[in-house]
Every structure is written in C-alpha cells, then in structure tokens.
Amino acid sequence: MTAPTITARPAEPRARFRDLLAAEWTKLWSLRSTYWTLLLSGLAIIGLNVNAAVADHHNWPRYDADIRAIFVPIWAMRDAFTQIAGLMLMLAAGSVGAITITGEYGTGLIRTTFAAVPARRSLVTAKLIDVTVVMLGYGTVVAGASFWASQAILSGRGVGMSIGYPGAFQAVAASAVLAPVCALVGMGIGAIIRHSAATMVVTTAVLLLLPMCFTDHYRWTADIKHALPAMAWGRLIDLGYGRFGFTVRRPTTTTEAWIVLALWALGAAAVAITVVHRRDV
Amino acid sequence: MPTTARCAESPARDTVGRVIEVSGLTKRYGPKTAVNGLTFTVRPGHVTGFLGPNGAGKSTTLRMILGLNEPTSGTATVAGRPFRDRPRGLRHVGALLDAQDVHGGRTAYAHLSALARGNRIPRTRVDEVLREVGLTEVARRRIGGFSLGMRQRLGIATALLGDPPVLLFDEPINGLDPEGVRWVRGLFRRLAAEGRTVFVSSHLMSEMEHTADHLIVIGRGELIADESLAEFAARGTPQSVTVRTPDASSLTAVLTAEGASVRPDGDRALTVTGLSAVRIGELAFQHRIMLHELAPRTASLEEAFMELTADSVEYLAGDTR
C-alpha cells in the first residue's frame, strides 16, 4: 500500500473557476437521468410539433380561404411550436434545473460538495452556467428541429416558412431560450425548497399554472400575466400578434417579452446563489 | 500530488497549520441548544476521539468546523482560519461526515473525479485513493448499489483525496465489517503518525479505546472531558477487588475495620473498594482467612464513559421524562 505523504507538500494551486465548471459538468453528465430526460423530452416535443404539421398537411384541402389567407405565418408557426409542446419544454427544462439542486440536497451530497468547495457562491454560479449552456443547447436543438421539420412538412402544401420570414427567427430563438430560463427558475425554486417533490410541484405551478390564474381584463392582472415566462414566450412566437385584424386588449412589445425572460433567468440565478450561500446545509 | 518521496518530518514543523481550534462554539436551533460554548483544541500527530452519546452535538460541531453550519456564536478554525474562508477545501481538510452524503446515481469514479477536478487534484489521485480503500473493482459501478461499508470506504477515499493535513471522520466505523474496522483503525493511526490531525467522532467508547490517544467528550452540547486516554480511564469507577472466600463475614469485619467498603457480590464473593488486592491478601493472611479468589477489577473505559455521560444522555431507553 502506498502511504500518502503530507511532507514535501507543494504549494496549493490557485483556485480556478473553470475547474468548478468542469467539475459540475462532470456531475451533470454522470447522471443517466440527465441524458434520458433531455433525450426523451426532446423527442416528445419535436414529435408533438411534427404531428401538428402533419395534421395540417393532411387537412389542408378542407381549409377555406380565410384560414389559407393567414396560414402563413400564424398557423404555420403554431405548428412549429404548439402550446402543448411548449408546456412540455417548460416542464422538462424546469425539472432538469430543479434536480441539479434538489439532487444535492435530497441525497446529502451537498455537504460533501461544500466540504470540498467552501466557496459556495462560486460553486452555485458554476452550476448555473453549466445548466444554462446545456439547456440552451437543448433548446436550440429542440426548437430548431421543431421549426425545420414542421415547415418542411408544410412546404409540401406550399405553406412552409423559411427562417428568414419576419419574426420566424425570433420565435425560434425565444423557444430555444425558454429552456434555460425555465431550468434556472427550477434551480432557484429548488434552492429555496430543497425537497425534490415539493420543488417540482411549485416549479410546475409557477411555470404552467400561474399564467392561467391571471386574465388580461384588468391592468394589474394583465401586468402580472405578461410578466410570466410562459406568456413572454407566447408573445414572441405569436406572429399574428395585433395583425390580420386581431386586436389585443393590453398589448406588450417583443422587447418587453425578452426583458421578462431575462429577468426571470437572472432573478432565479441570484436567488439560488444567495439562498445557498446563506443557509446551513 | 505527492505520492512518493516521503521524508522524515519533525512533529513540531507546521503544527499550527494543522490545529483545529474551537472556541466558545454555540449552536441553537430555535429554543434548543445543540452545542453550548464548546472550547477545545485538536492537535496534530494524534488520533483524537470525539465522544458523546447520541444527540450530544458531535455532528453539529463537525459541521460547524467545516463551515457547513453557521455557529450562533463562537468560532471554529482550522489552521487558524475559518474553513469557509478557503475557496477549495480538499487539500486542507478531508472529511467523512456521513457515508450517505453521495448521489446514488453516479459511479464511485465519477463522484471522486468531480470532487478532484473542482479542487485541481489530478485524476491519477482518484485511482490511488480508490486503490487505497479497496474500491478499484467497483469504481465504475453506481454508488446506489453500494453497501454501507462500501460507502464508508468511498467516504474515506473522499477524505483522503486532497492528501490533507487535517482529517475529520464522523462515526466512520458504522457498517464496516471486522476486517474493515481493523483497516480503519490502522489507517487512522498511520495518518496520525504522519503528523496529521485526525479527529474521529463516535458514540461508542469501545471504539475509541483501540484508536484514540486523546479524547474530547461532550454531552448535551457541552464539554465534559478533554484529556488523554489514560487520564480518562483513571476517572472511571474507583478500582475494586473481587474476593471469594468461604468465610465472608469474618473477612468483611476485618476489611471494614481497615476502612474498606465491602459489598456482598453473589455467592461467597465480596466486592471491596478502598483497599488494594495486595493489602487484602495480607490482611486475610494475618487473620488466617482462606481466600479462593482475589481479583482486582479495573474499570473499563466504557464504564468511565457511561458514568461521565450518565447525566447528559439525550435519549434514554424507557425514559419517562
């Protein structure tokens, strides 16, 4: 047996942030659940969107002139990003994010983690960045594939959009960004609650149910509604917004929607860092 | 990470860099005080046992030393600094708090690799510690399938990863088989002999008896004793002598006259305190009383421990408080 030695101890190498990024990256990808959740949810989301496009392709001969007139861009874009696929994306991304935090607290691993890296804020920041990068990649693949596949199918009827269509790129980008935003929200809520099941319930409620609780009937409820990530995403993918004779009671701009997404991401990250730093583990 | 080139070290060198210093440490959870004004120092080159009944506050104290829990008041430092002030910990303190503090979905190798990477410890060191604790064969298996004993070994591997000068172990024996227990004892002794600070908690005195040189005993969050194993042993029940004789009544009279306290102890046996076995033998000889047995009894450490902590046991079986 080789005895370790504590003599001739070399000077401790300087602590580098990128080592934490690498360590958290290893942790993320060394769990099978990460692969499976991303793979299966990604396929399901793309499948749902493709299915919508296939249905419209099939039904096209029966559509009347009114529908055909606005099929591009409104219906075509709805096929690229269906409501149900959007909900699933938010749910999957929120779960993946939440689990990176609650998985540490629930198992007790968090104590091993912080005994090895007492700089908690650095560690949580590394985790946040890794998750953001992974989920942005995931969102890009899922949104890009959904758009490309659905429009390829619709082009069989001559109603497919190209990415150059006004607003199309923004819609794809918003769908891609929705994944990291929801993942960060899951991480923030996970850091507060720590318990896996409760975190999932609250994350689901915030991302999916809260938008249903507010109408745009009153100014203040409309403001709250528009400040939710799901509604901001909906705004950015709605290419018929305020056009083609549709009126919007309390309109918001795409800039506002982008700000909403950014604020949720940054706010959730700030909460995660602060809460984890302050509380006992 | 040095693995060879070990040279003799004077124990005095850099000892300050290895001291755990706890001062006035207090932790309250609401109305409950888990740790109350603890002050002690753990020095390098020894295995220091940290003893106390369940719920005495051992784990809370260890967590505060590691900066995992914030003290309500008081300080805990390692090598003169609060541990939480260090950006990376593994090269300073190796700790096994709870063998279950792992994610069952990862392999042992992935678990250790991530920890090593965050601390800029080369990956070769992961293989070394896995070999050292005997987990090389199962390194690529997921921790979820590990027995408690295997998890303890993994926890020890984690503690050794950074080749640290200070090591903390919270109940490391739990779940280990006899071979594992012997191995762990040898490991602790070796780590201490290398000049490291080794601080091991346990609720079992018998465990410390074979491992520790020095003891810190707490009960209900307060310090009860901080002394060498020998000093601690001397605290126990005063030595007594078991005497077996066919003439118990005569002997009792003789010994009582000499100031001993004598208690009948079953059939023709007496438990005598206050006189040495030698003196009892002399007195019996002088008074021509036959003895069948004359056996000095040393109080075990376990008894010393039980006696010392009797007032501070948190959870007592059959307790009707």
Automatic annotation (TrEMBL), chain A:
Keywords: Membrane, Transmembrane, Transmembrane helix. The keyword Transmembrane applies. The keyword NAD does not apply. Coiled coil: none annotated. It comes from the Bacteria. The chain crosses the membrane at residues 35-54, 84-107, 128-149, 169-193, 200-220, 257-276. This is ABC transporter permease. It comes from Actinoallomurus vinaceus.
